[in-house]
Amino acid sequence: MNKKGIFFTFITVLLILVILSAYLIKTSYSPTASIQKSRAKVIAVNAFVKSFDSIIERALQASSKQTIISSLDYISTSAPKAYIPSFKAEFPGIIYTGKYNGQDLIKMEDTNPKSMNLRNTLHMVQGISKDSNIYLTYSPVTLQDITIQHLSPWEIEVALTLKNIVVSDSSELSETEVSWNLGDRTIRTKLYITDYPDPLTLKENGEELTIRKSTITEFNQKTDLDKFIAEQSFLAHGDGPNFLQRISGEFTNDINGIERVLDGKRGNDPTPTDSFVDFYYWGSFNDGQSSCDVEGYHPRIRLDNKHKVYYTTAPCQP
């Protein structure tokens, strides 16, 4: 996302201010130049304050999206390919500094003037505001001020808390005419995992497979599973890892988990489960479970009993 996209709302506000300022100047009943200037300042600062949450949300969203993309790039290009353990805990540091393990991630570097790390996008907001004589200050951001969590299997929320926010018309307290003390604000933005490739497939198979939400939610006949496998789509399932866990390489279950069933083009399951549910196949979760063939499918496609019942309605035969 470019700067225009990030700050579209802010630019719109500025255009409104230009129109209002022009009106004040042209009106036949205009006040004195000093009052006119003060009124313009009030209008500008108030308009910025009114749009503050939206402006910061755009910067936060741009940085959040780039953090996910850059982290997935790291997973696919690191040598050897590796997950980012405890990604949820690592996220605040990555989004704010643009680094993971001391390494600059792509498009997040401080040396890049178009860097999308959060420190830079917030600085861009301050810079554009300053160009219009609007001064934005806040306490230094700490990593504890940034969080990421799942709202659902398909949605992620990133939150940023800015503290001691002040918006004014001057950088000098003695020259300030208009000032707003906004206190502390928590800004939230939403991301959708369907905008990204599946981390497990990316790391384990070297393949970019965009996450697609399956339209099939019940498996009552063979054609349902056929279509599910052929489309390589994903199903929300509390037995699978969520998207953030997948970036971490955590093969455990979660209420916001997702999963897919792999096709028979790949080799036998490298783990003892012989289950072609993706996180069973690549992970070591429930490796002790027995599995069985799935009638009507390639002999390499096997499922553990729990998923055999779920996807075919029939259990494994003794």
| Average pLDDT rating | 88
The succession of helices and strands, N to C, reads: HHHHHEEHEEEEHHEHEHEEH
Share in β-strands: 15-25%
Low-pLDDT residue spans: 10-29
Please give the share of residues in helix: 40-55%
Helix count? 11
Radius of gyration: 26 Å
Choose one word for the global shape: elongated
By helix and strand content, what is the structural category? alpha+beta
Total domain modules? 2
Terminal Cα span: 55 Å
Major sheet = 4 strands, antiparallel
**Beta strands, count:** 10
Care to describe what's here?
The protein is of the alpha+beta class. The chain folds into 2 domains: 3-193, no CATH class; 199-312, no CATH class. The chain is built from 11 helices and 10 strands. Strands 3, 4, 5 and 6 form a 4-stranded antiparallel beta sheet that branches. Strands 1-2 form a two-stranded antiparallel ribbon. Mean pLDDT is 88; it is low at 10-29.
Which features does this protein show?
318 residues; 2 domains; alpha+beta
Concise synopsis of the structure shown:
By secondary structure, the protein is of the alpha+beta class.
Please outline the helices and strands:
Layout: H1 3-6, H2 8-26, H3 33-50, H4 52-77, H5 87-97, E1 99-100, E2 103-104, H6 118-131, E3 135-137, E4 146-150, E5 155-168, E6 179-192, H7 199-205, H8 222-231, E7 235-236, H9 243-248, E8 258-259, H10 278-282, E9 291-293, E10 302-304, H11 305-312
Antiparallel strand pairs: 1-2, 3-5, 4-5, 5-6, 7-8, 9-10
Helix pairs in contact: 2-3, 4-5, 4-6
